Amino acid sequence: MRSPHLLARRLFRQLLPAYLLLAAALTALQLFTLYVSTRQAIDSELNYLARAFSPSLGEALWAMDRRQLADLAAGIERSPVVSAIRISDEVGRVLIWAGNLDARQPAGMPPLSVALEHAAPGTNTITVGHFELYSSHALMLAQMRYSLLATLLNSFVMAAALWALFYWIIHRELSQPLAAMAEALRHWRKGAADEMAQPTYPHRDELGSLLAAFAEARSRLDTSLQALSTLNTGLENEVGRRTQELSEAKQRLELSLAAGRLGCWEWELDSGRNRFDARWKQMLGYTDEEMDESVDAFTARVHPDDLSSLMSAAQALSSGQIEQYRVDIRVRCKSGEYRWIQSCGEVTARAADGTARRLSGTHQDITERKQAEQALLAAHAENARLLSEANASLSERVAERTRELEAANQSLRETLARLESTHLQLAQSEKLATLGKLVALFAHDISNPISNSWMASGILDENLASVRRKQADGTLRQRDLSDFLDTVSEARKLLDRNLERAHELLEGFKDMALDQATSMRRQIMLRSWLEQLGYTLSPMFKGRGTRLEFNIPPDLELDTNPGPLAQVITNLVSNALTHAFPAGNVGDGTQQIRIEARRDETGCACLQISDNGSGMAPEVQARIFEPFFTTRAGQGGTGLGLDIVRNIVEDTLGGQIEVRSTPGTGSQFHIRLPGA
Q1: Full-prediction pTM beyond 0.85?
Q2: How far apart are CA 509 and CA 536, in angstroms?
Q3: Protein fold of 538-673
Q4: Residues 624-628: contacts with CB under 8 Å, at least 24 apart
Q5: Alpha carbon distance 312, 58 (integer Å)
Q6: At 265, phi and psi to the nearest 5?
Q7: Which fold has domain 4-187?
Q8: pLDDT digit string, tens, across residues 473-525
Q9: Which of 527, 556, 669, 553 is CA-nearest to residue 611?
């Protein structure tokens, strides 16, 4: 017969792996069941919070009551299943983000998103934003922590205990006491079953093995009952913990409802009985014992104009046409006054055939919001009136400014036409070249104020069109009107400055053009006349790093031909910029062209046009006034500029001109003209 030790080892090797696999599978099943139940509980709690708070959040968001939004969000955040809450408006701009920001990471569970809606009286509901509740696996694991530890510990203890017990049974109850088991079996056959408490059986046969298996089964049954008792104790502890959590969640819900100033109600459709909580009654000024909760008593308190809409919504809800309703009604208080209440409801119990049996919902006092809406409508009407008056005044001012601008433009066009005609008549002379240069400089200067004026006019047109659109849409605000009037004021100032600047340029250019077009002698104040000419030449200096300076007594008066004199000054300044300060050689601010004038002892006017540029070599000075002599052959120079200057000074103006120059230090042109 096979040794009992060998039999015990074989049985141990065969049964132990199977037992370990079974224990692991049962443990995994328990953990999965715990995970699913916890997840479902969290989802159910999130959905309940969303249904309970979305009406209040929607109305608070419509009213832009950030304080109420923050209070509601704080109440929701206190829920043990909420890790974060986000409230955003209809364009996605986040208004409230509270809680654990890590809920937005991939480790977080998908959020529960609910559209926040507002139902104004007589209109369909509109979506005013979104409300998202976040939970996380970390939060769920925290909720499962004690259950998870208890399950794992219980499985480990059971595996270790059963392994030790099985090992003991194999070695102590199978191998050694076989003889005692056989003896016990003989006593059992004789009717002495009580003596089987400690059976021994020394023989190693099938009967002994059967009795050993019977003893083992009885021992395992006792052990299983003990493990079941342990598991039952753990389940009782878990039920107690869950009950405590539900009690705390209910308490937090009560605090949230109180913070949101929400009253709850229920309507049993079978019995027709209403139930209202204490907060609902307090809204109307009643104590818990004073108020009649019957349906008839409630409908009697509702304003007659609002009763039909409320009953229609309740009928549509109970018949299954809608899933929930939200209606604004007026309800009479204990004091006799009516207050605006927003009633929200949904079906919370149905019969087996789908018929609604119970309706539940909340009431919220929205009287202040309704008063604010009425005040807003009044403000809109006042804004529309002010806008209409402002539009009338603005239209007149814009039309007047437009006429002034058109007149100025017409004057400019006429002036440019005259200048163009003069340019054509002098096309073959150096005098025309100078006038053309003045025209180009004038056009450059006049373009800025004209462009700015057109820009201001365009801004006025765009803002006026925007205000009219907002007025037509009914979205015009007091701030929009104030901004529009500020824009009009700034545009008017810009138009005034640029029209005044264009007028100054036009008047100065008209004098210059007249001087260039005619050879009439007249009295000029030399300093102011040269400053005006210098301003006309200022575009030639832009980007060159060169300054034009004057040193002329303010009372120096000269009787001369301004047109030819302007041509002389213009040619000498242009010649200095071209030769003394070549293009591309941008100065550092120390380069200058200086015009000085004085009256000598004979009464003649002495002008000096000097620069601190590159200067001229002696051989260049000797030929500077020769016709067709130029140092820029092939670069656009004709060699006639200074020859024409000398001819104008000596023949037209009756004066004298000479040049002095030192290479590296600059050049000076001295002109002597007869005085008055």
Answers
A1: no
A2: 8
A3: Heat Shock Protein 90 (3.30.565)
A4: 624/659, 625/657, 625/659
A5: 22
A6: -145, 155
A7: Beta-Lactamase (3.30.450)
A8: 878 777 777 877 777 777 676 666 666 656 555 655 555 555 555 556 788 88
A9: 669
On whether the CB atoms of residues 673 and 557 are closer than 8 A, the answer is no
- Residue 321 in tokens: 């046409």
Domains 4-187 and 261-365 share a fold: yes
Give the per-residue SS3 of 354-420.
Answer: CCEEEEEEEEEECHHHHHHHHHHHHHHHHHHHHHHHHHHHHHHHHHHHHHHHHHHHHHHHHHHHHHH
Among 143, 148, 150, which residue's Cα sits nearest to residue 242?
A: 143
Strands (E), 56-124: 84-89, 94-99, 112-118
- Rg of the chain (C-alpha set): 52
For tokens 């016709």, what's the residue? 627
Q: Which numeric CATH code is attached to 261-365?
A: 3.30.450.20
User: Distance (Å, rounded) from C-alpha 567 to C-alpha 646?
Assistant: 11
Contacts for 30 with CB less than 8 Å, ≥ 6 apart: 151, 155
Give the tokens for residue 138: 């970390």
* pLDDT tens by residue, 612-660: 888 888 888 888 888 777 776 556 566 677 888 888 888 888 899 999 9
DSSP label of 335: T
Distance, in Å, from the CA atom of 512 to the CA atom of 506, rounded to the nearest integer, reads 10
Lowest mean pLDDT across 97-101, 380-384, 634-638: 634-638
Per-residue DSSP letter, 136: B
Rounded Cα gap, residues 60 and 68, in angstroms: 6
